[in-house]
Specification:
Layout (H helix, E strand, L loop, with lengths): L1 H31 L11 E2 L2 E13 L12 E7 L2 H8 L2 E8 L2 H4 L6 E9 L1 E3 L4 E9 L2 E8 L8 E14 L7 E9 L2 E10 L1
Parallel strand pairs: 8-10
Antiparallel strand pairs: 1-2, 2-4, 2-9, 3-5, 5-9, 6-9, 7-8, 10-11
């Protein structure tokens, strides 16, 4: 009799513990603010979803390619047509590539705007440049980039420019007209582009 009562007490205690654990996990999930649509590692800001296209390491053609090795310069582009995308890609040689090249072919410029950035210069190591989020402030669009000082990976004895290209939903950027895109690197304003959105 004592054994069965003790066994029931253990089972009851385990049941209560499981209920508390499940409730705690549910509460943590609600506080994180991440729903099912936020998966895939896509940065989000102010409801804007940033879709990763490609990244890698590039060597720009002149005049950018002639900049001093000690240069610390962000180069940016806001691309709204296939012609602009082709012209941007012709500005450099892509030596190391991340992502799916097909994603560039699949961009629908009636629905998407491509934002691109590369940084002169960095030791060839890891994947140091990333888009952390995008927000709209009136007629301005703010693009927050992160540049890691010491990315993961094996360093090679070359200086190159890390590249990131992402797509934004055109409808998230407001009505047609001129938009100023302000690019920040690690919180500091680094470049500005003005684009005429169709």
């Amino acid at each position: 009799m004592g054994r069965s009562r003790g066994a029931r007490t253990v089972v009851l205690a385990v049941g209560v513990l499981l209920v508390v654990l499940v409730a705690g996990l549910a509460a943590c999930g609600e506080r994180s603010g991440r729903g099912p649509s936020a998966g895939g590692g896509a940065p989000q800001s102010d409801g804007l979803v940033v879709r990763y296209l490609v990244g890698g390491w590039v060597v720009p053609h002149p005049p950018d390619g002639r900049s001093k090795p000690s240069s610390e310069t962000l180069k940016t582009a806001v691309i709204t047509s296939q012609e602009e995308l082709t012209a941007f890609l012709e500005r450099f040689e892509i030596l190391f590539y991340r992502g799916n090249a097909q994603s560039l072919d699949n961009v629908e410029f009636a629905e998407d705007v491509v934002v691109a950035a590369y940084y002169l210069w960095r030791p060839l190591k890891g994947d140091p440049l990333s888009v952390r989020g995008v927000s709209v402030r009136g007629a301005a669009v703010e693009v927050d980039l992160e540049l890691e000082a010491d990315p993961q990976g094996r360093e090679r004895p070359y200086l190159m420019a890390p590249l990131q290209m992402v797509a934004l939903d055109r409808e998230d950027l407001g009505p047609a007209g001129a938009r100023e895109f302000l690019f920040r690197v690690n919180g500091e304003a680094s470049a500005t582009e003005t684009a005429l959105l169709p």
